[in-house]
Amino acid sequence: MSPWVIIVILGACAIAYAFIMPKKNKAQEPGHQLVQEMESTLEHYMAEIESDNEALIQRVAEMKGEAAAADQRMQIQLEELQQRLNELEKNKAAETNRVPPASVDHLNGLQAQALVDSVREDASKQGSESEPPQLEQEPVNERESIKDRYSELFHLYNEGRSVDAIAKQTGIQRGEVQLILQLAEREEG
Questions:
Q1: pLDDT per position as a tens digit, 84-101
Q2: CA dist 59 to 64, 103, 114, Å?
Q3: CA-to-CA distance for 117 and 111, rounded, in angstroms?
Q4: pLDDT tens digit string along 2-34?
Q5: Is 115 exposed, middle or buried (0-12, 13-18, 19+ CB in 10 A)?
């Protein structure tokens, strides 16, 4: 073959290749667009989780402050009651030495009644002022399973509902629903 024929054949191959290349790029663009959409969705989800975490941290800090203030108030009240008890014991010891033995039982009854009255008086004073929030202590229960805590979610899931439908009906975010379902699978396994 002559050199000009080889050049013509190579040129034709290059032109054919040039026509084929743009078609490949067009075929790849929807995949690239899908990846970008997924990335933006994940970024939005991460931003949402971050804002939820910040709100949760703020609430925990508020609760911690409230608990510390309530603890401090309780500690002060306990110290005051301890001082009163010590004073009453001193008074009892002093009066026991002065009172004849026959009236000791009567005196003990009066002192107990005075102590009860003073405690009630303190409680009513605190009740009339701003009453501090009482921290409720829950009894230690056995650890609930995740299916017990999210029974509605698992009921809908067992009915065959999609994750999106469950999220809409329960008001729980889609990612949380998925996480709860995965945790339940791990718990069972």
A1: 999 999 988 888 777 555
A2: 9, 58, 43
A3: 10
A4: 887 888 888 888 888 877 776 555 555 667 788
A5: middle
Measured N-to-C along each axis, helices 163-170 and 151-158 cross at an angle, to the nearest 10 degrees, of 140
Model pLDDT for residues 157-186, shown as the tens digit of each residue: 999 999 999 999 999 999 999 999 998 888
Cα torsion through 92, 98, 104, 106, rounded to 10: -80
Three-class SS of 123-172: HHHHHHCCCCCCCCCCCCCCCCCHHHHCHHHHHHHHCCCCHHHHHHHHCC
The answer to whether residues 115 and 88 touch, using CB atoms and an 8 Å cutoff, is yes
8 A C-beta contact, residue 75 and residue 82: no
Provide the residue type at 93 as one letter.
A
CA distance 100 to 105: 10
- Least confident range from 42-46, 62-66, 132-136, 142-146: namely 132-136
How many helices and strands in the chain, by DSSP H and E?
A: 6, 0
